[in-house]
Specification:
With 918 residues, the chain is of the alpha/beta class. The protein has five domains: 193 residues, 3-Layer(aba) Sandwich (Aminopeptidase), CATH 3.40.630.30; 290 residues, Succinyl-CoA synthetase domains (Rossmann fold), CATH 3.40.50.261; 159 residues, Rossmann fold (3-Layer(aba) Sandwich); 180 residues, ATP-grasp fold, B domain (D-amino Acid Aminotransferase, Chain A, domain 1), CATH 3.30.470; 69 residues, 2-Layer Sandwich (Dna Ligase, domain 1), CATH 3.30.1490. It is built from 28 helices and 40 strands. Strands 1, 2, 3, 4, 5, 6, 7, 8 and 9 form a nine-stranded mixed sheet that branches. A seven-stranded mixed sheet has the order 12-13-11-10-14-15-16, with helices on both faces. A seven-stranded mixed sheet has the order 18-17-20-19-21-22-23, sandwiched between helices. Helix 7 links the parallel strand 10 and strand 11. Helix 17 runs antiparallel to helix 18 and helix 23 crosses helix 24. The longest helix has 23 residues.
């Protein structure tokens, strides 16, 4: 993989140094980023160093003549060496950027760009011949583009020989928008560094394939060695070994223990290096102080992956965290994937694998639910529950401390796993929430993602002076992330399993219409009541359908739910289900069945199965009074119908399925281009403020208004004053009637302290108001503002979460903001559909549409304000809080009447979408 480049282009002085992107865990970002190559091996990408010259020079003299020719348009290796000297010695102040790729601890390639103009640069690549075909060039391109984008470079150029097919394919397949033309055998190619949907999708597809290859030795091993397996029952290593034996692991099984030659029928070896044949997976159950040495031995022995069951690492504090990071560094050096430490283990129920590398006493049945859990105890509970009532498990991973493999990695792996229908996650924390959101949005278009996220309590509520920040609970950002990504948040583990039973292997409901039929009238009524809470409709059937039901089944009553009566036979129930399914008047069907001595549960189940065979809508069953009955009904051919103990449980699960289906059917939306903004002006305001306030703080009204103007957000003109005379002069400039507000330092909620006077009509009223207000507040500084037109009062703004980034809010505004708490939240990027959903799902939304004859508000203007706030959040990473209250929505626009902004010193936002692990 090579790319020719012309000589260095001049760059403007004063550019920032290579930006710091987020690394893995607590790894310093300056150390670089780890990513997966196409073959699943780990590649370390980092900024070039001066001491890389020898390694890069060696590559120059190691690659073929053809590679040198394609790269430099000639055969001079002296030119290559001179360029290497330039790269390692270039002054970052001039905008030169070079990244190197390390494979197995050795430098294997370099990518660089040289500034050409303000927002354009010329790029070049050279990869060691031995590494061609492994996707190293693609990784370098993606990270180079991420760095360029952070530095304001919009376009990367390259002149490539037309015969350099490999490099041209790399560019064309990258997903970045490109343009090119051919001139005398040279392709002049330009890549746009901006992300669009196609770019991100291509990146995710490549990463998914790489993840699956990387995790194959871990989750589908052909050989397993249990290191630390003891001879006596009760020890963790011994029990894991017994589980692997008892479940019939299909590959080679070894034990590593220097104190014995045999454990049961399993031969034992003193060291992993002495195990005959290759080992895909090592399960490590040795004391914590021995784990680093064991991981190093596994790496040297060529082991593909390891599950570390041992505890005693980051959960113990800083010292344990340091050792854990050392484990990760050891693993990276050998492209060894790690699960844990401090975990329960892993399970793969594939009959071709039959892997149970856990010390749990649970045997899950094969099925379509893939599950990852940070807590081992939670994992055991879900495995047990799913095993007893369905849907069965495809794979299970206990994440433990997540030193390496995380929920994001597993999302990518399970995305295209043919045995997985539903992905379930129990999470206590996020390593990279924005990447999770992006991946979940992609994966969710194919498979539902169900999450139980702990930490809903408000004990961690942050203090905030603005309405937006004060309303942001610890869970606000999580809910916003899930809502945008199509993730179904489950309140309990039981709810996760119940919902997975509907979604696993079943058709999705294409609407909200629920039909309820059965022999239990009371259960049908309870189900109908639960439907409203779950967002489902229970509509009346058409006269033709109801007539047929009465005629064929003798149904009691004339509506939905359909009560067949306690004496209904299995045949009657079968006919009723067939009629409803054939009518096309239901998007899902709940069968309620009360078992009695007069009926036969097995015959009834068989009748339900016959009726539901081939159904194109989900059919679920609620069975009452039969505690020994099966929790699933087998269908002819394949598939099973879930059976629930209570009607409300079944309806709740169907409600989640309907919500997911609606999200998946919805267009993804686009992030609109925002016109009429002034990024340079916004940056100037921020620099000016932070120069005089180096620790940050609240902007004065004048600077706050300037930032709003830079973002193109309409504001009501306001002037500051500090005397009665200046106040009167300001009022003459803005025009009566006016509003007078205190501008005293430290007062954010002015209404709460009596710091606002409205509708002042003349100089006399204004002078008296100024005297009264400044006396009560004890500060002469005020703001004079023109009275705004009447309209619907909203509140909008953002708070920058340290982990999730900017989270936007809109809600009912004015003095009732906190009392009514009518709010909606979303994160970035904010699509047009995200913004529309935020506004239209508010309880006060009917006011915007025109309530009881009142004039409607300009909804597009409100949506535009949201998108401009989103733009400001991206343009000003120092923006910690923004609050507009009220934002008055009138029939002809939306105006910001009172704006509060808080800045903090901050660097560029990390590029969460770049190709780095976790």
């Amino acid at each position: 993989m090579t790319l020719p480049q012309t000589g260095p282009a001049g760059g403007a002085p004063g550019r920032a140094a290579v930006p710091v992107l987020t690394g893995i865990g607590s790894q310093p970002a300056a150390a670089g980023w780890d990513a997966l190559a196409a073959d699943g091996s780990v590649v370390h990408l980092r900024p070039i160093r001066r001491d890389d010259e020898a390694a890069l020079t060696a590559i120059n003299h190691r690659v073929s003549d053809r590679s040198i020719y394609l790269r430099f348009f000639g055969l001079s290796r002296l030119m290559a060496d001179e360029h290497t000297q330039h790269l390692v010695g270039a002054d970052p102040a001039y905008g030169h950027v070079a990244l190197v790729a390390e494979v197995d601890g050795e430098v294997g390639g370099v990518a660089s760009y040289e500034p050409m103009r303000a927002d354009e640069a010329e790029m070049a690549f050279l990869i060691d011949d031995a590494l061609h075909g492994r996707g190293i060039g693609t990784l370098l391109l993606e990270q180079l583009a991420a760095v360029a984008r952070e530095r304001g470079i919009r376009h990367l150029h390259a002149d490539t020989l037309a015969e350099n097919a490999a490099m041209l394919r790399l560019f064309l397949a990258s997903g970045f928008h490109e343009t090119h033309k051919l001139d005398t055998g040279v392709v002049e190619l330009t890549l746009d560094t901006a992300y669009d949907a196609r770019t991100l999708d291509r990146m995710a597809e490549r990463e998914s394939a790489a993840e699956s290859r990387s995790l194959r030795p871990v989750l589908s091993p052909r050989s397993v060695a249990v290191i630390g397996a003891g001879r006596k029952p009760g020890g963790i290593g011994h029990e894991v070994l017994m589980n692997l034996l008892d479940t019939g692991f299909t590959g080679e099984l070894y034990a590593v223990n220097p104190h014995t030659d045999q454990i049961g029928d399993i031969a034992t070896f003193p060291l992993i290096s002495e195990v005959p044949g290759p080992v895909d997976l090592a399960v490590i159950a040795v004391p914590a102080e021995q784990v680093p040495a064991v991981v190093e031995e596994c790496g040297r022995a060529g082991v593909g992956g390891a599950v570390i069951l041992t505890s005693g690492f980051s959960e113990l504090g800083a010292d344990g965290q340091q050792v854990q990071q050392e484990l990760l560094a050891l693993a990276r050096r050998h492209s060894l994937r790690l699960i844990g430490p401090n975990c329960l283990g892993i399970v793969n129920t594939d009959p071709e694998i039959r892997l149970d590398a856990t010390f749990a006493n649970v045997r899950p049945e094969p099925g379509g639910l893939a599950l990852a859990a940070q807590s081992g105890a939670v994992g055991i509970a879900v495995l047990d529950h799913a095993g007893r009532i369905g849907p069965g498990v495809s794979e299970f991973v206990s994440l433990g401390n997540k030193v390496d493999v995380s929920g994001n990695d597993l999302l990518l792996h399970w995305w295209n796993d043919p045995r997985t229908d539903v992905i379930g996650l129990y999470l206590e924390s996020f390593g990279n929430p924005r990447k999770f959101g992006r991946l979940a949005r992609l994966v969710g278009r194919k498979k539902p993602v169900l999450v139980v996220k702990s930490g809903r309590s408000t004990g961690g509520r942050r203090a905030g002076a603005s309405h937006t920040a004060a309303a942001a609970t610890p869970d606000t950002a999580v809910d916003a992330l899930f809502e945008q990504s199509g993730v179904l948040r489950m309140e309990t583990l039981e709810e996760l399993v119940d919902t997975a039973r509907v979604l696993s292997g079943r058709p999705l409901p294409m609407g909200r219409r629920l039909a309820i039929v059965g022999n239990a009238g009371g259960a049908g009524v309870l189900a109908a009541d639960a439907a409203a809470a779950a967002g489902l409709d229970v509509p009346e059937f058409s006269p033709a359908t109801m007539s047929e039901l009465v005629e064929v089944t003798g149904a009691v009553g004339t509506g939905n739910p359909v009560d067949l009566g306690a004496a209904a036979t299995p045949t009657t129930l079968e006919h009723a289900i067939r009629i409803i399914l054939a009518s096309g008047e239901a998007d899902s069907v709940l069968v309620t069945y009360a078992a009695t001595r007069a009926g036969d549960v097995e015959e009834t189940y068989a009748a339900i199965a016959r009726a539901a065979a081939g159904a194109t809508v989900p059919v679920v069953v609620n069975c009452l009074g039969a505690p020994g009955a099966a929790a699933q009904i087998a269908l002819d051919g394949s598939g099973k119908l879930p059976v629930y103990a209570f009607p409300e449980t079944a309806v709740r699960a169907l409600g989640h399925a309907v919500r997911y289906a609606a999200w998946r059917a919805r267009p993804q939306g686009v992030v609109p281009e925002v016109a009429g903004v002034d990024k340079d002006g916004a940056r100037a305001v921020v620099r000016h403020f932070l120069t005089s306030h180096p620790t940050g703080g609240w902007l004065d009204p004048s600077h706050a208004e300037q930032l709003m103007v830079c973002a193109g957000i309409p504001v009501v003109a306001a002037l500051t004053a500090a005397t009665s005379e200046a106040t009167l002069t300001a009022a003459d400039r803005v025009g009566y009637p006016v509003v007078l507000k205190t501008a005293a330092t430290g007062i954010v909620h002015k209404t709460d302290v009596g710091g606002v006077r409205l509708g002042l009509q003349n100089t006399s009223e204004l002078a008296q108001a100024y005297s009264d207000l400044t006396a009560s507040i004890g500060d002469p500084h005020v703001v004079v503002q023109a009275m705004a037109p009447t309209g619907v009062e909203l509140v909008t703004g953002l708070v920058r979460d340290p982990l999730f980034g900017p989270v936007l809010m809109i809600g009912g505004g004015g003095v009732l903001t906190d009392l009514l708490a009518d709010r909606r939240w979303r994160g970035l990027p904010l699509t047009d559909l995200d913004a529309t959903d935020m506004v239209r799902s508010l309880r006060c939304a009917p006011l915007l549409a025109g309530y009881r004859g009142a004039a409607g508000a300009d909804e597009p203007a409100v949506l535009e304000v949201l998108h401009r706030i989103a733009w400001l959040a991206e343009a000003v990473p120092e923006l910690a809080e923004l609050d507009i209250n009220p934002l008055t929505a009138t029939p002809t626009g939306a105006l910001a009447l009172d704006t509060k902004l808080r800045l903090t010193p901050a660097g560029p936002e990390p590029d969460w979408y770049s190709r780095h692990l976790r």
